[in-house]
Write a structure and sequence with these properties.
The structure is a homodimer.
Chain A: H1 11-18, H2 22-30, H3 37-50, H4 56-63, E1 68-73, H5 81-93, E2 98-103, H6 108-120, E3 125-129, E4 148-151, E5 160-164, H7 166-179, E6 185-189, H8 195-208, E7 213-216, H9 221-233, E8 241-244, H10 247-259, E9 269-273, H11 277-280, E10 288-291, H12 294-309, E11 317-321, E12 324-326
Helix pairs in contact in A: 1-2, 1-3, 2-3, 5-12, 7-8, 9-10
Chain A binds a DNA duplex through helix 2 and helix 4.
DNA sequence: GTGAAAGCGCTAACAG
DNA sequence: CTGTTAGCGCTTTCAC
């Protein structure tokens, strides 16, 4: 593994090859300054034939920006962070901006190390993200010298924040169930302590009105089973649809229903939340669920930090991005055009 | 969202505050050069009281290194990349090295853009990783000017590569099953076209000897169900253990067995592969499985790329890192001390 | 139109 | 022991 001593070609070499000064070369390559088209293209040709690539550190030192942003997250599992990261990266890559991924594991000390490292490296901005919309990361990101955008995590009130619109997603789920003719829709969801749980439940109640029923539990398949046992253990008329707080619960519900001989979607329609592929697609039948559009959220976060970094003013506050119904087979029905 | 114009404090300010020259300040802070302890600590105090943080770009420009490495991956799902990334990051964070995450989605053009961007940013090294041990990334990383380490993806023969030891993991699984007294162990795995499938199957056959039986299929729960249908549909004596090629197959197998009234682990023990938490822990009963120690693999990759960057010589070739049996409940038995 | 010179913030010789 | 000097590779006034 010896590294060939291929000297990097500097702008100096390009200038020399093109027979101009370094200053002119710089201007030619950056499409700034004034010069004959001939000179400009001669320099550009020299550059490309030499394979010149500008040293980002030298350039950054002057321009005081690094074409780099940091993505801070405590979502070790990556379930939420990964699509978000993909979106961020996608929005930034053609601007030449790279992304530092910093996993901080809820450890304030680690978080500080990462933030300091990013600051030292002169990141143009930071995107803070997490696994819960209603929790802050264990680090103070205010007064940083670089702009911060909060995505899928709680930030200060005067910050720029991006979250998925849980209420809207919940509305889509219920609406779909109703459009399929379902009348007795129960909501089986996670712990009351999650803001998104209450947000989704609230929207569910608002859509259903009279007869709304919410069962709170944990974010597990296990709870899906228990909820079904509870509902089907009652004397009352059974639900004909169950809207679940996430895909794991939904999978538990579907499995439990099948084990009881209840047909899904024949007798009961089930909707999940998250569109976590590994869970939703493996369920029998595959889950119709709500996708939070995390990738789009990431893209938007990327665009916003960049705008902020460029000095543009961005209205602070919480932006809610719409969710999207993903139709598979657990409800019956076919995708709307 | 206005950015306060907090001027960054430069080493110049520290020097002035401590009443020394910039050169001395630099030496004091980097613990290089010679000077009285008094001077050194006076400078350090000045630095910390001013909240001085060196500008990494300026430093990098001189030292020709950026304290940054790039992690290239085509594993969009993150199932393999995330633990790996966590390991890389963990190994590097206290060396002050940050990680660029570049998701390239099997797109050669995108890959090139990312590689170029990393090179422009003077990364100290690149770690190439993927979702398959036997496939190369769609980009040529040879002759780069920075060291490259391949982790969980195929690299050139003379490169430094890190993979999990599939054969060893397979051996651990079979050994565990045998130590539990299982006699008729069948291997249900993925497509023959995966090198890791053949590697695991080969080791399985070697351990079992006479009576080994391998069923190839797809990496899905669905296939787990089908395999059980096939095995239990035969007249022959049933297996008393099934070693699966991954956790999804194992979950399918366990579910299918339960649906047939076969007790797991009472009648049949099941072992998975991957230790993908969301699958392994949600299976009823939770899966005993083989963990590929991807995080450790990431740590090692981080260490190696840094060593290479520091000019150390690292023996090229493929390093196989051991897997680890994770005992849950699908086999019976209790963890060995 | 083009180039000489200054300098981004820091480190590394080399003097003193 | 400490300070002066010279850059790292690039962009950017400002003369010519």
């Amino acid at each position: 593994m010896s590294v060939l001593p291929t000297k990097r070609v500097r702008i100096y070499d390009v200038a020399q090859a093109a027979g101009v000064s370094v200053a002119t070369a710089s201007k030619a390559l950056n499409d700034t300054g004034r010069m004959t088209d001939e000179t400009r293209s001669r320099v550009k040709e020299a550059a490309s034939s030499l394979g010149f690539r500008p040293n980002a550190m030298a350039r950054g030192l002057i321009q005081r920006r690094s074409f780099t942003v940091g993505l801070l997250t405590n979502d070790t599992y990556g379930r939420f962070t990964l699509p978000l990261m993909a979106g961020v990266s996608e929005a930034l890559v053609d601007q030449g901006v790279s992304v530092f991924l910093c996993a901080i594991e809820d450890d304030p000390a680690l978080a500080k190390i990462h933030v300091d490292a990013m600051l030292d490296k002169q990141v143009d901005g930071i995107i803070a993200s997490g696994k819960r919309i209603d929790r802050q990361l264990p680090v103070d990101l205010t007064n940083l010298s670089v702009p911060v955008v909060y995505a899928f995590t709680k930030g200060p009130d005067d910050a720029v924040s991006l979250v998925s619109d849980d209420a809207e997603g919940s509305g889509e789920a219920v609406e779909w169930l109703q459009s399929l003719g379902r009348q007795r829709i129960v909501h089986v969801t996670g712990p009351k302590t999650f803001a998104s749980v209450e947000e989704r439940a609230g929207a569910y109640r608002a859509s259903i009105g009279e007869g709304a029923r919410v069962l709170y539990g944990t974010w597990s398949e296990q709870w899906g089973h228990e909820a079904v046992a509870q509902l089907w253990g009652e004397a009352a008329e059974k639900p004909d649809a169950i809207f679940c707080g996430n895909d794991q619960i939904a999978r538990g519900v579907v499995d439990a229903l099948r084990e009881r001989g209840v047909a899904v979607p024949g007798d009961v329609s089930v909707v999940g939340f998250d569109n976590w592929e590994i869970v939703a697609a493996a369920t029998r039948p595959p889950l119709t669920t709500i996708d939070m559009n995390l990738k789009e959220l990431g893209r938007e976060a990327g665009r916003l930090v960049l705008a902020l970094a460029a000095g543009e003013t961005v209205e602070p506050g919480i932006r809610k991005l719409p969710c999207q119904l993903v139709i598979r087979q657990s409800c019956g029905g076919v995708p709307r055009s």
